[in-house]
Design goal:
With 264 residues, this protein is α/β, with parallel strands linked by helices. The chain is built from 10 helices and 10 strands. The chain has a single domain, classed as 3-Layer(aba) Sandwich (Rossmann fold). Helix content is 34%, strand content 22%. Bound molecules: adenosine-5'-triphosphate and magnesium ion.
């Protein structure tokens, strides 16, 4: 489903503050794979997702999605097939629009403007059914402006919106990091039901190593812009956080610095 080959991204090329954010990234994701991505601060995780989403155009290398080259395609032309969820719950939904208006926008993703029409009763029923499954009571709040919802409710709504039209690829960038522990757990459970169990091909960045080991089918670790570990399902069994730290040492030749990864 996703094929990344020899990918490089360099910021401020030729300047004193030149930064090689990604170097020689090679990655293949089969359809339905759910991959967790870990790595220290500045390892290149968000840059990788930004290159896949079209926010940054890579300096070298290619990205193919479902057989089609998308390396230099503008981000809005990828939006119909790639969905993204960020750390900040405020970014995934439109604050001043209601719950049902947000869902209607998601349902019409990729449609031409002139085809956009009023919300039908049939759609309202679909929204209510889908919202009920989140078990947050949002099915009774279709006409509530999203800005009145909690961070966790907004993030849950963003997840639902992302899957309303099945994406080819989902990119989740620490999407539970700014939630309180209980809400984060609930949103993680929803991630399992809406993405993992539905076999949506997903890359999920997390700074929580425990989470990275529990979720999905495969784990990759980035360090200084390179993939230094790629552990698939069989090999992941029996792996603990302590062993993961050991593997990091072995692969990078460095001690894992005392950053968010360890604190989590
Ligand atoms: N737009 C930019 N301009 C210049 N440098 C950038 C830009 N975006 C990222 N970088 C640099 O590229 C490197 C990788 O950053 P990136 O945001 O991908 O890290 P990350 O792995 O997501 O880290 P974190 O865990 O802190 O989110 C960092 O050194 C960062 O400072
Ligand atoms: Mg990041």
């Amino acid at each position: 489903m996703l094929h990344i080959s020899n990918l490089y991204k360099i910021f401020n090329y030729g300047e004193v503050n030149e930064k090689i954010a990604l170097q020689n990234i090679n990655l293949r994701l089969a359809a339905g794979e759910f991959v967790t991505v870990i790595g220290g601060n500045g390892a290149g995780k968000s840059t990788l997702l930004n290159c896949i989403a079209g926010v940054y155009i890579p300096d070298q290398g290619t990205i193919h999605l479902d057989g089609r080259e998308i390396t230099r395609l503008p981000d809005y032309q990828r939006a119909a097939s790639i969905c993204r969820i960020f750390q900040d719950p405020m970014t995934g939904t439109a604050a001043s629009m209601t719950v049902e208006e947000n869902l209607a926008l998601a349902l019409r993703r990729g449609m031409k403007r002139r085809l956009v029409r009023a919300i039908t009763e049939k759609e309202r029923k679909l929204f209510r059914d889908k919202l009920a499954r989140l078990e947050l009571g949002l099915e009774y709040r279709l006409t509530t402006p999203v800005k009145l919802l909690s961070g966790g409710q907004r993030q849950a709504l963003a997840l639902l919106m992302a899957t309303l039209v099945r994406p080819k690829l989902a990119l989740l960038d620490e999407h539970t990091a700014s939630l309180d522990p209980k809400t984060a757990l609930r949103v993680l459970e929803l991630t399992r039901t809406l993405f993992e169990k539905e076999n949506i091909t997903t890359l999920m960045i997390t700074h929580n190593m425990e989470q990275a080991l529990r979720m999905g089918t495969r784990l990759i670790m980035l360090h200084e812009g390179k993939i230094i570990l790629d552990v698939n399902d069989g090999e992941r069994e029996g792996l603990t956080v302590a062993k993961l730290i050991e593997l990091f040492h072995a692969a990078s030749g460095e001690k894992l610095q005392n950053d968010r990864l360890l604190l989590a």
